[in-house]
Predict the structure.
Amino acid sequence: MEQYILEHLINSDSLIFEVIMIFFQLILEMKSTGKLFYISIPVAIFFSTAVVWLIKVIARNINNTYEAGVGFVIGSFFSFVTTFAAVLFLFSLQFTEPVVKVVIKGWELSLMANTDWRDKTFREAYENVADLKTENGRQLENFDSYPHPEQGGSSIPTHSEKAQLVATNTYLIAAENNFEKTMPFLSWILTAKSGTAKSDILNDMKQHFSKNNSSYLVSDAYKIASDRISKALL
């Protein structure tokens, strides 16, 4: 059940659906502790019943001849359910941290496994670096041995610091945008920041070029980006 909720939470871009899934995830987390969950149930029933009783009392005070009908039954049921859910939610809020950790880790793993996102971001990074020009109007990097991704290319020449920054920023922005799109509710509460991702990726590039002259596989930068954003969010 928990895995089902997590998968649908990450794969959904609906704000309402995400709120509902997070609510169920919080309840499941609270239920795993045992004692608090079973305390919250009678408390929720008590407050829900009290709300329905209060509505009935108010209605009778406003109109002495008032008689409960179908409308009152439907309204009472809605009030009972929403109050019950609200009380459970308040009890479960203390489990927000472990739930958020699970959700964000799930987002990171989902991002790393998302081949469409990786291919699209790699192509975007490739084209952004290819657009860089020198003062003479020539390409900043030599792309002679680096075909376009649509032609089977799998790496980007990023020997210059400017090319490294452009490629790095492309991956960071793409990862941050993905979080905002797939996690609209959490993204409203938490701002996806790259933290130390930019410096970590650049250091990784420098270490790579200090050992050999081959092109850095920029496509691997998404691993660093997603990991650092996850840590920053937590």
